[in-house]
Write a structure and sequence with these properties.
mainly alpha; four-stranded mixed β-sheet; 10 strands; elongated
Length: about 675
């Protein structure tokens, strides 16, 4: 039982990776659509490359979006609007108009013409309200039919037969003239204008309800293809009706309700493909990114980002499929490049895009666009902490989307007439959403405890609390660290290493010297040497302890592990040679192991660069009269000794790169010492 527990404890990291792998696979499969996958690509405008295709079952031919839109437009255009007709108002207005006659006309006129005037007013009011009076809000075609609702009855009339309020003056003037009452025109107009009101109103609710009912009853299909019918023959061009039938078959196939047995097989197929894709990512990390693979937090972070992108894309596809390119997928390679490296970022991006191909329509087009955009992202954003670089990259990503979409449309349609301008807006929105990568990286740093180049930029500020403390307590060490940082940054740029990481590591690599500053020569301002009162063994221990104390100080001040690595490895497993030789003079049996730094040796290009630059810069202070040849030999000697001791065996740095670093160090030291050629007297 104890052996089993021991094995379980030893392999807990592996078990966690297996658990993470299974959990990620299950979550992604759960998010994938569960319909069948149509096994043919439908190449519009190209010959059908597969065998003759026959209908596997009866299915309806779907109308195109344009046909449905045209049908909806026809229904909307031909819709007969409803108007409410107030049947009580005409009688009330007639009575009011007759009373108004007595108020407007003088008694002398009424005594002679009252009956005739009253009859004319009554007849005119009846004519006005025969089909009603409308206060017009929107003008329809005169011959357009409308429904007049009188109570529960609706009668169909031409829109022109309803009198509009804007037409009432001309109508009354004409009636007065035709009836021989021109001499009383002013009084009669006053009577009508004081009493006549609209009695017809537009019934928007009933009109819209009926329109919605008709639109909802639109058939989205036209015709049926019977089982066994030949849909297309090999070599036929996929266009016109053939193309629409194939699209209809694909839609029907993917929307079918499968039996439990079929459903289970679909789940098995999806699970296999998803697991295979994620396994490739794990194998890549295990072979080429061992440090990342061994760190469960980093593996969790990578898998979390994949799940996040799959989930975000699924939500957008379910909400509105036309917005699929708004999802800022290029954030994924940007984020992984910021924390790890470009190759891992691109590999993970490609795996994620392959998984998203199961979710999105036009999967080949989508995958092509996203992979190209990911490559552009990796190639263009070299220093994410520089805001200008990110904005330039966003512009390039958007341009690539637009150009690639334009090319696909031309290939598929043979022209640019069917290009959808609105999709360019989604590309622009997706590009702008990529700017969210900076706050997202900050959140990731807090959640997963990792460090990006943007955090390194903050740490490189020499006004930070820890570096100011170093400058006050050990000014010589601080000056030494600045010089090493400049040398290391130049060397890193020469061999394409992470220059920002090296610079920060160099600034903090000797912070352990703050605790005993006078025991280090660069901080000794007097002729008194603190080591004179100590034995060589004690002096060596104090020198060696600056690494241990530096690690403790860094952890206390919450410096990232990537920076602490430089403190831990900058002396590797080298010996404090000066005090070892002194001890050897006293005791011939002295062991070099007692004067050796605890290590480990550098395990990256960046930590190897720091070791070289630190040793060269510190030792260069001993040069009395430096010359060009002396500096060249000096650099060669120090770095060759480190190579002979095997200090760079784990650092993945090549001989060629070491030679390039040597070249940079020689040039920089010559600049520091202002070497000039000797002019003849």
């Amino acid at each position: 039982m104890s052996d089993f527990v021991n094995k379980l404890y030893k392999n807990q990291a592996l078990f966690y990776k297996v658990f993470l792998f299974v959990l990620t696979s299950v979550l992604i499969v759960y998010l994938l659509p569960k319909g069948g996958k149509f096994k043919y690509d439908i190449p519009k405008g190209k010959p059908w490359q597969y065998e003759n295709l026959y209908a596997p079952f009866d299915f309806a031919i779907l109308k195109t979006d344009e046909e449905v839109a045209a049908e909806k437009q026809d229904i909307t255009r031909s819709q007969i609007p409803y108007y409410n007709f107030d049947t009580e108002k005409p009688e009330l207005i007639k009575d009011e108009a007759l009373r108004e006659v007595n108020n407007v006309f003088p008694d002398s006129t009424l005594s002679v013409y009252e009956t005739i005037i009253d009859n004319f007013v009554s007849e005119t009011v009846e004519k006005i309200y025969e089909f009603g009076l409308l206060q017009e809000s929107e003008r329809l075609d005169p011959d357009h039919l409308v429904y007049l609702l009188k109570g529960n009855e609706a009668s169909e009339v031409a829109y022109r037969r309803i009198l509009k309020q804007g037409e009432i003056r001309n109508f009354l003037s004409e009636e007065i003239s035709n009836s021989g009452f021109a001499s009383f025109k002013t009084e009669l107009l006053e009577v009508f204008f004081n009493t006549v009101e609209p009695n017809v109103t537009f019934n928007n609710e009933l009109t819209q309800n009926e329109l919605a009912s008709k639109l909802n009853n639109i058939s989205y299909t036209r015709g049926i293809i019977e089982q066994g019918s030949r849909i297309i023959a090999k070599g036929e061009v996929v266009e016109g009706n053939k193309y629409h039938i194939l699209r209809s078959l694909k839609a029907e196939y993917e929307s079918q309700v499968w039996s439990q047995s079929n459903y289970n097989w679909i789940i098995v197929g999806y699970s296999t493909l998803v697991a295979l894709a994620l396994l490739m990512l794990l194998l890549f990390m295990r072979k080429y990114r061992v440090v990342i693979f061994d760190n469960n937090v980093k593996v969790t972070f990578i898998f979390f980002n994949i799940i996040f992108m799959v989930m975000l894309t699924t939500l957008v596809v379910n909400f509105e499929i036309d917005y699929v390119y708004v999802v800022p997928l290029c954030i994924l390679p940007l984020t992984l490049k910021a924390f790890f490296d470009a190759r891992l970022g691109l590999f993970t991006h490609v795996i994620t895009v392959l998984l998203l191909g199961f979710i999105v329509p036009n999967s080949y087009e989508y995958m092509f666009l996203q992979i190209i955009a990911g490559i552009v992202t990796i190639l263009t954003v070299s220093e994410l902490y520089k805001r200008a670089n990110l904005f330039i990259s966003v512009g390039q990503i958007t341009l690539v989307y637009i150009v690639a979409y334009f090319a696909f449309t031309v290939i598929q349609e043979g022209n640019i007439d069917d290009m959808k301008p609105e999709i360019f807006l989604t590309f622009l929105l997706g590009g702008l959403a990529t700017l969210f990568v900076q706050p997202l990286i900050y959140v990731y740093e807090k959640i997963f405890g990792m460090v990006s180049d943007m955090s390194l930029l903050e740490l490189s500020d020499t006004n930070s609390k820890l570096l100011k403390e170093l400058a006050e307590k050990a000014p010589g060490t601080f000056h030494h660290s600045l010089n090493v940082a400049n040398l290391a940054e130049a060397a890193a740029n020469e061999i394409n290493a992470n220059a920002m990481l090296v610079r920060v590591g160099a600034l903090y690599h000797d912070i352990g010297k703050m605790y005993n500053p006078t025991y280090f020569t660069e901080n000794q301002t007097t002729s008194v040497n603190s080591h004179d009162e100590l034995s060589p063994r004690e002096s060596a221990q104090i020198i060696i302890e600056h690494v241990i104390k530096g690690i403790e100080c860094a952890k206390k001040n919450n410096l990232p592990d990537r920076v602490i690595d430089f403190i831990r490895t900058h002396h590797g497993t080298s010996t404090v040679y000066y005090f070892y030789k002194k001890e050897k003079e006293i005791n011939e049996n002295a062991l070099a192991e007692d004067f050796r730094y605890p290590g480990p040796i550098p395990f990256s290009k960046e930590t190897a660069i720091l070791m070289m630059c630190d040793s060269v810069e510190a030792a260069s202070k001993s040069l009395k009269e430096p010359t060009s040849i002396l500096i060249d030999n000096f650099v060669e000697k120090i770095i060759d000794k480190q190579m002979d001791e095997g200090q760079f065996l784990n650092s993945n740095i090549t001989f060629k790169e070491i030679q390039m670093v040597k070249k940079i160090l020689k040039r920089k030291l010559k600049n520091i010492y202002h070497l000039r050629i000797e002019y003849p007297e």
